[in-house]
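Handout for the seminar on molecular recognition.
Each group receives one record of this type.
Step one: identify the two inputs.
Step two: read the structure output and locate the region that could contact (3S)-3,7-diaminoheptanoic acid.
Step three: write two sentences on what you found, then compare them with the reference statements printed after the record.
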Amino acid sequence: THIVRREDYLPPAFWIDTVELTFDLDPAKTRVLNKMRVRRNTAAGTEQALRLDGEDLNLARVLVNGQGATFKMDNGQLVLSNLPVDDSPFELEIFTTCQPEKNTLLSGLFTSQGTFFTQCEAEGFRRITYFLDRPDVMSVYTVTLRADQALYPVLLSNGNLIKEGQLEEGRHFAKWHDPFKKPSYLFALVAGKLVAREQTIIARNGKEHLLQVFVRPGDLEKTEHAMQSLIASIAWDETRFGLHLDLDRFMIVATSDFNMGAMENKGLNIFNTKFVLASQATATDVDFGNVESVVGHEYFHNWTGNRITCRDWFQLSLKEGLTVFRDQEFSMDMAGSDSARAVKRIEDVRLLRTNQFAEDAGPMAHPVRPDSYQEINNFYTLTIYEKGAEVVRMMHTLVGEQGFRKGITLYFERFDGQAVTCDDFAQAIADANPESELTRLLPQFKRWYSQAGTPHVQATGLYDEMAQTYTLRLTQTLRPTPGQSDKQASVIPVKLGLLTRSGQAIPMQLQGEADPATLERTLVLSEAQQAFTFVNVAQAPVPSLLRGFSAPVVLHQQLDDEELEVLLEHDSDPFTRWEASQQWAQRIIITAINDGNDTPELPPRFTQALSKVLNDPLLDAAFKDLVLTLPSEAYIAEQIATVNPQRIHTVRQALLAQLAAALQADWQRTWDLHHDTGAYTPDALSAGRRALAGKALAMLTLHSSTAEDTIWPGKAYQRFKDASNMTDRFNALSALVHARHPLAAKALPLFHQLFKNEALVLDKWFQLQASAPDLDGDILPQVQQLMKHPDFNIKNPNRARSLIFGFTNANPAAFHREDGAGYQFWADQVIALNAINAQVAARLARAMDAWRKLDEPFKAHAETALQRVAAQEKLSKDVREIIEKALA
Ligand code: B3K
Ligand code: ZN
């Protein structure tokens, strides 16, 4: 296996200043002429050969300055020697062909439903032509597309359209020019039968821009939300960071065959339909929210990623962590109220703690700036994206909102148009804020980039009544991760408050500090252990720690039920308030698991506290929904050393049933107050009401199903049939399916019938059935049956993810079977997908990351399944890397 290492980075031996590409598009055989102006990077030496990357290409001809050139092939690379030793430019022309319709990898140039698309990040451009396919080689592109006019009326590439016209034999052409230098991974083309929603906007600076959202004919009415999200993103980046749209034309194009969410190609973003199309009849509130955040994310990349890009792929988080931070802030600002912002923050934290913390604790653990990889596509991870965003957020916390904006401005002053590193970014933020804690602690702070794993922080408080002091002792530890045994202390901002037992905020003044006391502050933990003593504390306080989740750490503190209750009832910070409910629930669940107790009971004190939240007229519905949600099975598994997924499921289901029963009257009242959701708008407030109504209906249906009462299941079925939007309809359907009520068997075929022509809704239909609660092992056979459904197609990533991942990743109790059949299914699908689409296969391979933590008999079965995949002869390097690391 070939391992790429960060320490081996060398600047490129050549630069490619301009690229002129001419495509003769044909699904079976596309011809590509690539004419480059190349010059030696003499700073890197005078002797090196030019080594161009290529993959799956048929090479026809190579010309240097118009003359046939001698070259050799080495390991897939095209190698040219005898080139000028100085930096005088020369022209290099390469003729190749490729087969887009055979490209099931969906990397490079491929077709989807008769339309051509490209995906070049990370290393797809080399599947289009031979090139220096690395992000630090930036060029100006001019692209001519030629194709049959009837089949491919729309021809798009990056930048501006400079010419178009007819050719012979019913063909036509379009010529595009992108004035901005860019790395090859940002190249894109699209050709097909598409229609566009268009809008012209006038930016703050008076410049006019044309915005277009291209989709297949028939999908046009589902593009309004994407267009509005794009307009909002443009306005937001101007206001918040002073960053303007730099192109005359900005295009978004949707495809239903895509390996990921979307791609930020300069001026021509390509999107998975899932993150463009939204109508109230077919998309849920969550879908609407995702469209907004992904449209924002890709748009924000135009500056953070495209104008300033990565020097090498180890710096991926430079653009991804920062851009996730930006899209999170955008969504929060769009959500409006403080409470809605907090809800978004809690959702982001929940994702991070459930999935990124698991990654940090497993065989794929890697730093935000990795040191090595076998396949870069395996490193588009939660660590790079979500933890990377948390690192940026901590900088933001340490320098403040204004300081952060100054830092971003300096970052663009220094590096616009360049390919740079994470160090460059951190240095710019620090240099713009010379007096900040970040600057004082910068070298140590940057350990967040170099150390893998999640720090654990132990907090203990000591109240001294005589002295009227409260001492908070914070201890941090970081466990070894693969390849990193010695860890050093991190810089951990801990935002906190102190509460009295009746919930009042206590002013905080540190010993020896002259500053007036404040009600909230941020301590910076930078040593292995530190104690902070607060003075003039009149009573033993309840600490509210890590407010807003101020650092991506696991916090351990021994709060008793009464203290948790104080926080849940009174804390001014919605995050810690929510967290109190989760800590409490988690303790109840884990105690029951450890005691081997299958019929645990919810303590009345806990249900009463939840009841208070549910009935509090001052709290937003969305927040209530989060508090009333028990920690997921995956999150609970994270907290346990040896995992028996069946036990987790049994205990959690038992408690869920009790929550449904104990609060039945509250759920009814909640339903009565929230179920009439009125005219549909996808804003945060109404979405929250729909979510809470959906939760109430699910709880009432669940309770009736056990109590054999037909009223609520009947209401759920009625709601399912009558609902005027997908959120209410799908929540009602889910309520029946999750209660395993017989009416689900009536509703599911009806749902299919209603939406048989809506691919994204069918994905939901498959996913819901795959993630239904298991009864005596009946879900796996059902999934296997669904694999044979005429609407199932393993080659379509969305469909494969909905059914297969819906089972392996979203249904732990059905997947982890005592007979190991779930793992055998997993192995079969990894092997099948490996032959079709290595990236999707590698994602699926990761479903077994945590296998070493499993209890027997699960663990032995898991190992057998992993070994079977490992023994395959034709394993892609994507899948091989994941499986090797899992077994290491
Ligand atoms: N930059 C792309 C992801 C590319 C993934 C390549 N395997 C989307 C995004 O983060 O915006
Ligand atoms: Zn991104």
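Reference statements: The radius of gyration is 28 Å. The CA atoms of residues 15 and 39 lie 5 Å apart.
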